[in-house]
Write a structure and sequence with these properties.
Layout: H1 8-16, H2 22-40, E1 43-46, H3 48-64, E2 75-79, H4 106-113, E3 117-122, H5 156-163, E4 169-174, H6 180-186, E5 189-192, E6 212-217, H7 220-230, E7 260-264, H8 274-289, E8 293-297, H9 305-320, H10 339-350, H11 353-366, H12 371-392, E9 398-402, H13 418-422, H14 429-434, E10 438-445, E11 451-458, H15 463-476
Parallel strand pairs: 2-3, 2-4, 7-8, 7-9
Antiparallel strand pairs: 1-3, 4-6, 5-6, 5-10, 9-11, 10-11
Helix pairs in contact: 2-3, 5-6, 7-15, 9-11, 9-12
The protein binds glutamine (GLN).
Length: 486
């Protein structure tokens, strides 16, 4: 096995037993990137020079016997929506071209502290708005399983880097499914933690009441290892909660006998790909054979989730993105006749079509006369959706659904029809509206050889049970081990 094929725990073992050096690991990935990135286009930037410096410093510290942290020498890729001090952060938007953050996001500090080697920043839908990464202002990322298809989005670059063995693991962000849906489409594991579990300080905001950062990895153990590092209270993020942080790896390997799994009727709908439905139903059978109890449940307000999300998310985005006006960050329209012309010129030039569409939708939903009819009503429905989950979790510990209604679609297939694109998130957005954690993991392949994702949703702050169940399923199957040579 090549070094670049290993995930976090595989490399950890070799590094900790000093079978390899951080420098050797890094060079294996840089070589792989040089060979494969030209096909996949997953990175916004590869920070090879900085990474070589980091790895060399770590190797010196390891040789001295210093305590270097659990991720020492592990190369990770970070979605380009997370601020990295001294390294450009674009959100894959032209408007942020040339923006170099003066500080690190809290998750970056935590990862560096743990010894991670930053390999690069990954491509994404502009400002995380999209489901295919085709809204990037810079490049189109390909799905490593079929280069004619999308990797999902908006964390499509992160998902593709992991699936193509271009890094050991990655971080993404999830506002309506942007970690879980690309994880499903690329055949990897993606975890969206509970709202408040991971600090968003330094995450460029899309919709602040929904955004979460989370791990995207080759297997469930790696997700637990990364979550251990990035979880915890942060005084810099007022929504981050001050709760004890468990060791998430301790949940792995626990028996799942008598765990109750809820199967919501509303998630097995018309329009869903029959191959996705079959794979999901087979996953239920596997979990039952391991001793879990499956039970039908209902989440009656599910049908309103997409509409509710696209009101709340666009409203918040219209406000959050007001700061990009040519004054402080990124580009500025040249030779404007006055301040207003500079604002409008910069935004006209800098934002792509989808971002403009969202800003207009959100501004409309918040405007006088429409606020009550749209935004306020959406907030009320959001409460109903959250209550559906509260009710359901009286009867089960985990809810099981498909992650996405179809496997990866073709490049360009949905770009002309925003509404069908929005529907790719039909199974993931409720978790963000309710604030609960969710994980996607591989559960099969279509006839055409494309990965299918299984979604597990948990009670607030109960990532442990999600990881426990996901790990049990992963141990009983070998979907996560499949690879397509690139
Ligand atoms: N695809 C959804 C959207 O376009 C979700 C994006 C996300 O989670 N960042 O808004």
């Amino acid at each position: 096995m090549e070094l670049y094929e290993l995930g976090i725990h595989g490399l950890q073992e070799l590094l900790q037993r000093r079978k390899v050096t951080a420098g050797e690991v890094l060079r294996a990935f840089l070589k792989r990137i040089a060979q494969v990135e030209g096909k996949v286009h997953a990175f916004m930037a590869v920070t090879g020079r900085e990474a070589l410096g980091m790895a060399a410093r770590l190797d010196r510290r390891i040789a001295r016997g210093d305590d270097v942290g659990p991720l020492a020498g592990i190369p990770l890729a970070i979605k380009d929506v997370i601020c990295t001090q001294g390294i450009p952060t674009t959100c894959s938007s032209k408007i942020l071209e040339g923006f170099i953050p003066p500080y690190d996001a809290t998750v970056m500090k935590q990862l560096y502290q743990a010894g991670m080697v930053l390999l690069g920043k990954t491509n994404m839908d502009e400002f995380a708005m999209g489901s295919s990464t085709e809204n990037s202002g810079y490049k189109v990322t390909r799905n490593p399983w079929d280069l004619g298809r999308v990797p999902g989005g908006s964390s499509g670059g992160s998902a593709a880097t992991v699936a193509a063995d271009l890094c050991a693991g990655a971080l993404g962000s999830d506002t309506g499914g942007s970690i879980r849906q690309p994880a499903a489409l690329c055949g990897i594991v993606g975890l969206k933690p509970t709202y408040g579990r991971v600090s968003r300080y330094g995450l460029v905001a899309f919709a602040s009441s929904l955004d979460q950062i989370g791990p995207m990895t080759k297997d469930v153990r790696d997700a637990a290892i990364l979550l251990n590092v990035i979880t915890g209270h942060d005084p810099c993020d007022s929504t981050s909660v001050n709760l004890p942080v468990p060791d998430y790896t301790a949940a792995l390997g626990r028996e799942i006998t008598n765990l109750r799994i809820g199967i919501p009727d509303e998630y097995f709908v018309e329009g869903m790909d029959p191959e996705v439905e079959t794979a999901t139903r087979q996953a239920i059978t596997v979990l039952e054979s391991l001793g879990a109890k499956a039970e039908r449940i209902t989440l009656p307000h599910t049908e309103y989730a997409v509409a509710t999300y696209y009101l709340v998310a666009t409203a918040e985005a219209s406000s959050n993105l007001a700061r990009f006006d040519g004054v402080k960050y990124g580009i500025r329209a040249p030779e404007s006749k006055d301040l207003l012309a500079m604002y409008t010129g910069t935004r006209q030039e800098g934002f792509g079509a989808e971002v403009k569409r969202r800003i207009m939708l959100g501004t409309y939903a918040l405007s006088a006369g429409y606020y009550d009819a749209y935004y306020l009503k959406a907030l009320k429905v959001r409460t109903l959706i959250r209550k559906d989950f509260e009710e359901a979790f009286k009867r089960c510990e985990v809810i099981l659904t498909p992650t996405a209604p179809t496997a990866a679609f073709r490049l360009g297939e949905k770009t002309d029809d925003p509404l069908t694109m929005y529907l790719s998130d039909i199974f993931t957005i409720s978790a963000n509206l309710a604030g609960i954690p969710g994980i996607s993991l591989p559960c099969g392949f279509t006839q055409a050889g494309l990965p299918i994702g299984l979604q597990l949703l948990g009670k607030p702050f109960d990532e442990e049970t999600l990881l426990q169940l996901a790990f049990a399923y992963e141990q009983a199957t070998d979907w996560h081990k499949r690879k397509r040579p690139l």
